[in-house]
Each structure stands twice: as structure tokens, then as C-alpha cells.
Amino acid sequence: MTAKEIIAEIKPLGSENYKRVIFNHGVTEPCFGVKVGDLQKIVKRIKKDYQLALDLYDTGIYDARYLAGLIADDARMTKKDLQHWVASANCSPLCATTVAWVTAGSAHGWELGREWTESKSPFVAVAGWATLASFVSIKDDSQLDLPELKRLLVRVQKAIHESPNLVRRQMNGFIIALGSYVPALTDTTIQIGERIGPVTVDVGNTACVVPFAPDYIRKVQKRGAIGKKRKSAKC
Q1: pLDDT in tens, 186-205
Q2: How far is Cα 85 from Cα 16, in angstroms, rounded to an integer?
Q3: What is the pTM of this model?
Q4: Domain limits of the chain?
Q5: Counting beta carbons within 10 angstroms of the beta carbon of residue 66, is it exposed (0 to 12), middle (13 to 18) or buried (19 or more)?
Q6: How far apart are the C-alpha atoms of 193 and 70, rounded to whole Å?
Q7: Could you give the CA distance from residue 109 to residue 79 in angstroms, rounded to a whole number?
Q8: Half-sphere exposure (CA, 13 Å, Cβ side) for 146?
Q9: Distance between CA 44 and CA 219 in Å, rounded?
Q10: Which residue of 27, 59, 132, 151 could cross-link 113, Cys pair, CB 3.0 to 4.6 Å?
């Protein structure tokens, strides 16, 4: 299938009600308001398609871009592809999901995730922290640079409260991911999370709640789920 054919297929599936919901979460035009469940049906049919994913992303339509991430062949994504995706992303939800998931699954996740966290652009920084959170959730601990992850934690501790609203939220998510998926750093993340204290984020007109990282990690501990990796960051 071509990107044009996919657009023609998903456009009628859009819902104004759903569109209003995701706009409250930061999604912007152009957007049809297609539910993820409807996009997942197309994913089952297409599976992976590297070129189609690139073409869909370049339409600039949020729903098509989200779908692009779901069908992207992460292993084939080049650094140039990923830099283009993050540079042209026009909303935080896209950076925190599509861009981050695909980058984490690529051969460039660790490098680009760290690079992007240094960006002055809130969207790019969001993608950076979200990429690192996804990276630790899917990679075996033997593939992780624990000393560097500790340094990143210290950096978060120093900077989180002064960081932009969108970035604070992703930094908090990074702490939670690190504590939940990397057993060697669980105690450290809880300690640092306690020093940081609650993280205040303006979630706009949504019912979202920003969890207190230590409490969240302790709940994962109580379930006996610390260190249980995900097969894929995508959902």
C-alpha cells in the first residue's frame, strides 16, 4: 500500500470527540482523530514496512505519523531518518511516543537519546528522555551503561524542577523506568526520587496524574515486577 491509500483509508475513521481528547494532551493539527485501536488493525495487516513508515511520517498528519511508528522497521532506521523525525515533530505526544519508541528500538537509541536530552528545544528534550526510558525497558541490563545512567540520574536530580513543563514530566518518567526495569539501580532511583520530591507538572485540561516516582517504583517492587523487560516499547 502507499501512504496516499492509507490516508484515504484512515481519514473516515476520525472522530471529533477523540480528536478533542488527544488535543487536550498536546496533539496539534493536522489530525483526523483516529483511535489507536483502528490503527492497530492496519498494523496487523501491514506488519513492518520501512519505506511506507517514512512516507506516512512525511505527510505531517498526526494519525499517519503515529501509524508510521507502529509499522516502522526500527532496525533499518538510520540516524538521519531519526534526526528528521524528531526535528519535524510538531507536538510533545509524538516525541514521547512515536519518535522515542522507534529510536529506542533502533541501533541509535542510546546515542541519540543522550544527545537529545541536551537540546534547548523542549520537544527534542522530551524525545530524548522518553527514548532513554524506552531503551532501558527493552534492552538487557548487560547492554546498559550503568555508570552513565547513574550520571543521568544525578543530572535529573539537579535540573528537573527548573526544566520546562513537558521535560519535567519525561524526566520523571525516566526515573520511574530506570527504577522499574534496572534492578541494580532501583534503590538509587528511589533515593534520588525522595530527594527530588513530588514533581509538579501542568497537565492542562486532562485527568492525568504525575506519579511520585519512589511510590510508583515501590508498587512495581510489591508486584515482583522489577526488571521485567518489555518486548517492544511500542503500544
Answers
A1: 999 999 999 999 999 999 99
A2: 26
A3: 0.97
A4: 1-72, 94-235
A5: buried
A6: 32
A7: 9
A8: 12
A9: 33
A10: 132
